[in-house]
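Exercise 7b. Backbone tokens:
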């Protein structure tokens, strides 16, 4: 039986893309200011204070709590659930008990003892609050190929010679070969096609492993490998995802599969690497520079101890971005099989003509006056001697919580929103993306957030909503956004930290993919403290080989 408190029409749903004043927010706002303040980090409260005291009312705090946590994240929190349930009216509690098929003799008491931590119960609570369940994923299934014989039918003309050269090289292990091309040149499809064309002729227990830094590049590689295998596959196989929130697997149990692995999750001391190397046909390093990093070099050494395999490195940095010295020399010497590159001006012009390699107007900004307590490991342009492949989480958290930095970013986004075109903001953390998507509308700037924590289906839907609603700022984190899906992108603000030049270039490359050549030059603002090599920004619109 519906209670009088239940609306006849559904309330607008809250989500990580910017909550409205939904039932979830309204119920949370029934708590007092002091209670709600404890649910937000001191740095967030300080940032809200710079916006104005009026935003720290109970309703304002509830709104920002859901902004930071995301609607489903808020419901997952036992502390927030307790606050919500404690403020329900008798009729609301009875209504919720009806949905849960619980007795309504003493509904408030009954709900207080009910286990909402179980997935099914949490989904029902979310339904009651109008929160859609967009996180259900299809479990990985064995992938059957189409049994087609021609591997090159999906390659463009400028990729064919490179494909043939790469395919011939990896057929004779051990060999290490570098694919050095700018963003937009189709390196991902080229390498995936060559590796899987070899894989389909190998014994059933052999594997292809693809190592990339971070979940964003891993997800992109997985989707590409899945698509290519649908075209080329000659047998059933399993595509494994060892990145992000996907379950970890023992490395010595990957025989006979195509595995995409986040190299940042690997330990160079894992003895199972040797067994993995023993069943590997091709190992692809999506960031070739990780091969000459101490961690990456040790991973290769362990893999090689298991037996011979072909190693392919992918490099998108212009030769000019890698200064002469030990780093450049080590990179060149790591690839005994040579380099496949784009050298001719006419080849580069072809990429420009289709809008895959475009001019970018880049600038670097310093967001704070005082240096961070944890200095970025990339203070020097040569980052291969650092102990870690990426910034540690202490540094990333410090950036995400820096009030001065966030206030400056907020000012940049607000000022830039008055100009033509849409803005893509790569936030420091998922929570930062959601917070900014909540703050900007309060300042009169329509915004949405999408992060890797959203399912692919939810991301697609959110992107469609962002476009259809004509919103101004898209706050993203953790995945590669294809810019052609959004018309009129004028600016990208990059505040997401990372050491990998490959990850940075992949992010920017996807953003300008198939960009309309009639649009104004894309502008890029990069936070100096977010990139180990912020100087890379100056070479984005140029290209040179390592021999130049």
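Sequence design result:
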């Amino acid at each position: 039986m519906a209670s009088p408190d239940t609306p006849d029409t559904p309330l607008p749903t809250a989500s990580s893309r910017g909550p409205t004043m939904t039932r979830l927010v309204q119920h949370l706002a029934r708590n007092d200011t002091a209670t709600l303040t404890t649910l937000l980090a001191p740095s967030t409260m300080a940032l809200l204070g710079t916006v104005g005291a009026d935003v720290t009312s109970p309703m304002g705090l509830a709104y920002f709590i859901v902004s930071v946590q995301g609607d489903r994240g808020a419901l997952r929190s036992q502390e927030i659930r307790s606050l919500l349930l404690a403020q329900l009216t008798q009729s609301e509690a009875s209504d919720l008990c009806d949905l849960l098929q619980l007795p309504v003799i003493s509904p408030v008491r009954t709900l207080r003892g009910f286990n909402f931590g179980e997935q099914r119960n949490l989904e029902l609570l979310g339904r009651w609050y109008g929160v859609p369940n967009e996180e259900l994923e299809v479990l990985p299934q064995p992938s059957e190929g189409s049994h087609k014989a021609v591997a090159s039918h999906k390659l463009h003309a400028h990729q064919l010679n490179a494909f043939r050269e790469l395919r011939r090289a990896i057929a004779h292990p051990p060999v290490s070969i570098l694919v050095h091309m700018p963003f937009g040149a189709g390196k991902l499809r080229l390498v995936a096609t060559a590796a899987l064309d070899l894989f389909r002729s190998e014994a059933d227990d052999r594997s292809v492993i693809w190592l990339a830094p971070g979940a964003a590049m891993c997800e992109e590689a997985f989707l590409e490998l899945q698509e290519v295998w649908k075209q080329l596959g000659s047998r059933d196989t399993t595509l494994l995802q060892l990145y992000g929130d996907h379950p970890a697997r023992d490395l010595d149990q990957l025989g006979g599969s195509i595995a995409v692995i986040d190299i940042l999750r690997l330990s160079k001391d894992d003895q199972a690497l040797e067994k993995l190397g023993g069943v590997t046909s091709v190992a692809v390093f999506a960031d070739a520079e990780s091969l000459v990093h101490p961690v990456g070099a040790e991973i290769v050494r362990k893999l090689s101890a298991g037996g011979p395999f072909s190693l392919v490195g992918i490099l998108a940095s212009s030769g000019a971005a890698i200064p002469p010295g030990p780093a450049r020399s080590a990179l060149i010497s790591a690839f005994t099989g040579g380099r496949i590159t784009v050298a001719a001006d006419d080849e580069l012009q072809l990429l420009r003509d289709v809008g895959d390699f475009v001019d970018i107007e880049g600038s670097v900004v310093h967001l704070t006056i005082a240096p961070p307590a944890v200095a970025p490991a990339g203070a020097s342009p040569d980052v291969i001697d650092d102990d870690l492949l990426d910034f540690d989480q202490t540094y990333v958290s410090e950036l995400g919580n820096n009030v001065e930095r966030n206030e400056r970013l907020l000012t940049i986004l607000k000022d830039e929103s008055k100009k033509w075109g849409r803005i893509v903001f790569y936030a420091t953390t998922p929570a930062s993306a959601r917070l900014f998507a909540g703050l900007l509308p309060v300042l009169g700037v329509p915004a949405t957030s999408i992060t890797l924590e959203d399912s692919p289906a939810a991301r697609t839907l959110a992107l469609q909503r962002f476009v259809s609603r004509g919103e101004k700022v898209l706050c993203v984190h953790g995945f590669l956004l294809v810019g052609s899906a959004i018309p009129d992108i004028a600016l990208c603000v990059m505040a997401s930290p990372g050491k990998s030049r490959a990850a940075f270039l992949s992010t920017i490359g996807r953003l300008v993919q198939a960009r309309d050549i009639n649009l104004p030059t894309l502008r890029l603002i990069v936070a100096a403290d977010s990139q180990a090599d912020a100087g890379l920004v100056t070479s984005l619109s140029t290209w040179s080989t390592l021999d130049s």
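Instructor comment: Residues 56 and 406 are 17 Å apart (CA to CA). The chain has 21 helices and 14 strands.
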